[in-house]
Design a protein that fits this description.
The complex is a heterodimer of chains A (about 425) and B (about 90).
Chain A: E1 7-13, H1 17-28, E2 33-36, E3 51-53, H2 54-60, H3 64-67, E4 72-82, E5 87-93, E6 101-103, H4 106-119, E7 123-125, E8 130-136, E9 139-145, E10 149-157, H5 164-168, E11 180-189, H6 192-199, E12 205-213, E13 221-227, E14 231-239, H7 240-246, H8 250-259, H9 264-267, E15 271-281, E16 292-293, E17 296-298, H10 314-334, H11 339-351, H12 353-360, H13 364-370, H14 372-391, H15 398-412, H16 415-433
Parallel strand pairs in A: 1-2, 1-10, 2-7, 4-12, 10-17
Antiparallel strand pairs in A: 3-6, 4-5, 4-6, 8-9, 9-10, 11-14, 11-15, 12-13, 13-14, 16-17
Chain B: H1 3-8, E1 12-14, E2 21-22, H2 25-30, H3 36-39, E3 45-48, E4 53-56, H4 66-70, E5 77-78, E6 86-88
Classes of the chains: A alpha/beta (about 425), B alpha+beta (about 90).
Chain lengths: ~425, ~90
């Protein structure tokens, strides 16, 4: 029997961006909502690159820029292709009047969001692990924690990439190594002055590096670097299946990347503040689980909502949380928590950028993954060798150099492989732009 | 001290008294790759040749879940540490 004393309208499991956005949406509608976080505080179990995105965050916390703990506003994106000892770097720089993204530290930012949510009526329960969902007649009616059972009308699962709870009730199967990337990160302390000097930014401005090749060459993996106020976050994420296949230790790869001549001077003499690791959902559209059932909805990483190409995750988490929250409010209003009533959440997701974007890139990871040694190995190396050739001055006539460079494409690899590459690119472009 | 130990030294932990990671040793003994000993970003797992046993340094776990997904025989018992235990990231 449900214990009425322990019953609320909604229980949200997981106090990250998805869970907080969901809970605050429900609290604002005057409903009772409990947000359960397993860490000491929100953000204490979370790791990302990272930056949060201004517009989606404003959809949940309209004035967050006034009081949230923000590190730096992004003014530059750098795409660095690392060779063995050289690099090609493309940079896009713009000082937006209306910033697109900010670097933040999750231990501070998520905690701030959770505090704001509790000010708006969310009952925040920290240091509590939900071990199991309670079902009654096929409907989720509550959660089992280590201490007691709590009952509610709707449970929202925002319990992150490992979501054991979504698995428990069969909304999703177990993850496979090619569905996730293992990411390791180091936060390195540097004085604000050194950061400004090395990254050519003013004190509130930041720079993001997206790093290809180097120790990740030929694997489905990328590196990243973000500037914080007085630290730099540097890390990489590689598909778990690639690490397994090649028997690689993730921290060895990061150490190698940190030693690269393009990267090393940027973090020189910095002090390691913290090392961390996390999984990133990479499966994309094809691995999105069932996101609703009777009395339950799934959002954020638990629903595999990550747009790998654009490095988006927290925004998909926040907006999916908000949509789940809105659906919960409507369902509470009608007193109907059936699968049918909560299917509105799926419809809202379909109408939003979340499912639209995931669908756009549905073939991206598998397409690039199948030819990772080409697209993330051979061709990035070729870009570096092109610039090496182009910038070399050695009294060899230029036409000869061009001819040698072009000839290499046909001697280094089989022509059939070249055709396969072109075909893969065309297929991918078609899937992204048309269907 | 190895580089990884230096890194792990920066991480704040509240270790539990019991392990939240429970390998099935019979499966580990016949596991060829012992991939958890390589993949784990905190080197939680070590193979003890002498006792033919997987050692689990669960106190170092960063709670990423990579071992669970990598486990060849899918036999690793993996759950979150208790609510006030485990890793606390300050700079995530």
């Amino acid at each position: 029997m449900a214990n009425e004393e322990n019953k609320v309208d909604v229980i949200v499991v997981g106090g990250g961006p998805a869970g907080i956005s969901c809970a605050v949406t429900i609290a604002r509608a005057g409903k009772q909502v409990v947000l359960i976080e397993r860490g000491k505080f929100s953000g204490s179990k979370n790791v990302f690159g990272g930056a949060i995105y201004a517009q989606p965050t404003r959809e949940v916390f309209p004035d967050f820029e006034k009081s949230a703990p923000i590190e730096r506003r992004t003014i530059e994106h750098k795409y660095a292709i690392l060779g063995d000892d050289d690099a090609t770097v493309i940079s896009y720089k713009k000082k937006h009047e209306d910033p697109v993204s900010y670097s933040v530290i999750r231990g501070k930012f998520d905690r701030w969001m959770a505090d704001e949510a509790s000010k708006e009526g969310v009952i925040l329960v920290e240091e509590t692990v939900v071990r199991e969902l309670i079902l009654k007649d096929g409907c989720v009616v509550g959660v089992k924690t280590e201490l007691e059972d709590y009952y509610c009308d709707i449970v929202v699962l925002a319990d992150g990439v490992n979501s054991l709870l979504a698995k428990q009730i069969g909304l999703r199967g177990d993850l496979k190594p090619h569905d996730v990337a293992l990411s390791v990160k180091e936060v390195i302390k540097l004085s604000p002055e050194l950061i400004n000097e090395r990254f050519h930014v003013a004190s509130d401005e930041g720079c993001i590096y997206e790093i290809f090749g180097g120790p990740m060459s030929g694997m489905l993996g990328l590196g990243f670097m973000y500037t914080n106020k007085d630290s730099v976050s540097i890390g990489l994420g590689v598909t778990l299946s690639d690490l397994i296949e090649k028997s690689l230790r993730p921290y060895d790869l990061l150490d190698k990347m940190k030693q690269h001549p393009e990267i090393a001077p940027l973090i020189k003499d910095g002090e390691l503040l913290e090392y961390s690791a996390h999984l990133i959902p990479e499966g994309g559209f094809k691995k999105v689980p069932i996101v609703f059932g009777a009395g339950v909805m799934v959002c954020g990483d638990a629903a595999m909502f990550v747009n790998n190409l654009h490095w988006e995750g927290t925004n998909l988490a926040m907006i999916s949380g908000k949509l789940a929250g809105e659906t919960a409010v409507i369902a509470l209003g009608k007193g109907d928590f059936s699968e049918h009533a909560l299917s509105r959440y799926q419809e809202e997701l379909e109408n939003s950028f979340i499912i639209k974007d995931l669908r756009t890139y549905k073939d991206l990871m598998s397409g690039v993954g199948e030819r990772a040694s080409e697209f993330l190995g051979y061709y990035p190396r070729k870009i570096n060798s092109f610039f090496e050739m182009f910038t070399s001055v050695d009294s060899i006539p230029k036409r000869e150099k061009y001819h040698t460079f072009i000839k290499e494409f046909f001697t280094e690899r089989k022509i059939s492989e070249l055709f396969k590459d072109v075909w893969s690119v065309m297929k991918l472009l078609w899937s992204i732009l048309v269907k | 001290m190895s580089d990884l130990e230096d890194k792990l030294y920066t991480v704040k932990y509240e270790p539990d008294t019991v392990s939240h990671l429970q390998p099935v040793q019979e499966c580990c003994r016949i596991c060829k790759s012992k991939i958890c000993t390589i993949i784990c970003p905190a080197k939680v797992y070590e193979w003890d040749e002498r006792n033919n046993k997987l050692i689990v340094n669960f106190e170092n776990c960063l709670e990423c879940g990579a071992c669970r997904i990598s486990c060849e025989s899918c036999s690793l018992g993996w759950e979150y540490p208790r609510g006030n235990k485990g890793v606390t990231f300050k700079q995530g």
